[in-house]
Task: structure prediction
Amino acid sequence: MASRIAVISRFLKDVWTLTRPYWSSEERWAARGLLAVIVALNLGVVFITVQLTEVNGDIFNALQEKDQGAFVHQLLLFGGLALAYIAVAVYRLYLNQMLQIRWRRWLTERYLGDWMAGQTYYRLQVTGNGTDNPDQRIAEDLRGFVQLTLSLTLGFLTNLVTLISFLAMLWSLSGSLTVPLFGMEVAIPGYMVWVALLYAVGGTWLAHKIGRPLARLNFDQQRYEADFRFALVRLRENAESIALQGGEAQERRRFTERFARVVDNWWSIMRTQKGLVWFTSAYGQVAIIFPLLVAAPRYFSGAVPLGALMQTSQAFGQVQEALSWFIDGYVSLTDWHATTSRLIGFHRAVEELRETTRTAPQIARAAGPDAALRVEDLDLALPQDPAPLLRADLTVQPGERVLVTGASGSGKSTLFRAVAGIWPFGRGRVGLPSGAEAMFLPQKPYMPIGSLRAAVTYPSAPDAFAGEAVREALEAVGLPALADRLDEDDHWAQRLSGGEQQRVAFARALLHKPDWLFLDEATSACDPETEARLYTLLAERLPGTTVLSIGHRTSLTAFHDRRVEVRRGEDGVGVLRAVQEAVG
Ligand SMILES: Nc1ncnc2c1ncn2[C@@H]1O[C@H](COP(=O)(O)OP(=O)(O)OP(=O)(O)O)[C@@H](O)[C@H]1O
Result:
């Protein structure tokens, strides 16, 4: 019990951690004002429903009495109330949705900010610390959290007020019932209240018993559908590799397996729902007659008029509905709990990452006294393993062209990541001169989806360079045919060949004219002539740019002033050493 309380209080704390920031943000007054209006409208709906029920009773009384004047009067009253109800119901939903989107927009901005700041998105991925699918957290869970938090809290308030109002109405309508018990006459005051409570609690309990597996089954269904969809997306993303290797049979088997789970689970949902609908339909039908049946004796005895009978029946229905909300609410609560837990997991992972970034030993970034790149006493490590992967000491003077070589997996790309400042794992110092413009060209350049112009000018905006300059850069790297397609939208990563994508990246470098250019096997997909042409272009067009390349081909040495190589030291750790050879 104590541990259960601890779990609940921890969960509520988590909810508070997620909820508080918006309600105390710069938007707080607008948000609180909007919430106050929505609460008032919700209470307004309950109030008007109570009034409507009473007018409804009076209409039947007028009918019974054949009092046409009173009948018309009550009808007009009913019409006025119904109009008010419609207006309140419309704005209750409209303002609720307005608050949802404002809150969600604020939270999304904040989560996106946290995710992008300090390359958190990258570090979370390389450290792999338990936050799967951050995209789902930001796109779906934030929406779910906002929607469920509002619907649960407002639902709680509205149903509580409805329950109290209609219980009071039922109490005043039902009078007391006298039942013979052990030869005595026992009076049960407000007996309809007890009957309604029994009926609602009993019925909902039975529905809960029959439909209980549904919560789990629905949860599983979402997961199986997502797994199936993900397998299809993987095929689309890796279409070429799979087609080349003839992996269709394997993939097809995977699809069939995953889809079979979707179908199996669906059958279980169907069976459970069938049982539930048998019950709920019967329960719903009986609910129309049941209160009439129970209250009828007092009507026939003349104790209450027809209107009171009808009003009793309506109030009974409202009580039953409100109570069912409380008992059924567990499904939404489970959903809310899962969503909140996923969001809080993401929030914690980001906080922890920030904390370790602040406190854990890591590679220091410090610009040296001059304009050189300095890598000093660097011990590169992996995120999960503090043992050194590569030791490096390197100074590169401005204007130099240096080639880095070494065995596959020896840590060359990781060294570049450290120089770029996105790899903090390890010790030592790395410093690029402050204010220097650096550009990194990886082996597989990123191609944003959109126009070719946007792909060539990336990471600057598409209009950052004159159209003529962009066209000229594409022609220079040997892609004249693309120069006329700058405004064509496409999935360029799939449309262009590997070598063409690498040439687009070179065109980027020509446009941006960085002071420092880092090339990580940036010409590996090009033929030797194209590679030579690209490096010659760099020398001609960017004579002042310092170049540091990673590459395996010996032909690359001709385009560099010197070469450094990663070699395995006596202790098995890679060490970066200068290679004495005539190059250039
Ligand atoms: N996020 C990571 N978590 C664990 N290990 C990693 C991670 N990133 C890289 N590694 C490992 O670090 C080692 C060095 O990788 P790196 O990419 O720097 O090698 P490389 O010298 O550039 O290789 P190649 O020449 O094949 O490109 C590899 O063994 C790789 O598996």
About this structure: The first helix runs from residue 2 to 23. The mean pLDDT is 88. The first strand starts at residue 176 and ends at 181. The chain has three domains: 1-173+329-360, 175-322, 364-579.
